[in-house]
Amino acid sequence: MDDELVLRLSQAEALVLREWLARSAEADAPAPFVDDAEPRLLGDLLATLDDALGEVRHSNPEALLRTARARVREG
After folding, report:
1. Residue 1 lies in a domain
2. Cα–chain-centroid distance for residue 50?
3. Is residue 6 domain-resident?
């Protein structure tokens, strides 16, 4: 699971995502959606991540997630 994944976003998608993430970070919790574009974009990103991760996330999802979280925390 050390392979790099590249997600492609349009400038509009990047701006919508950046603003929602910034509001969420400020609130230290997921921010409420202020526009229908936000949940749509998150749904699209989730589908893209599911496709990119494929079978990896099905082999032992709990253990993989624990390991991934530890790696992200450690930087």
Report:
1. no
2. 10
3. no
Please give the Cα distance from 68 to 74 (Å, whole number). Answer: 10
pTM of the model: 0.80
Rg of the Cα trace of the chain?
Answer: 14
The verdict on residue 15 lying in a domain is yes
**Axis-axis angle for helices 11-27, 37-53 (nearest 10):** 100
**How many Å apart are CA 68 and CA 71, to the nearest integer?**
5
| Residue 3 three-state SS | coil
Say how many domains are in the chain: 1
Domain hosting 38: range is 11-74
Q: Give residue-wise pLDDT tens across range 25-35.
A: 999 999 999 99
Q: How far is CA 23 from CA 3, 36, 66, in A?
A: 30, 16, 26
User: What's the DSSP call for residue 36?
Assistant: T
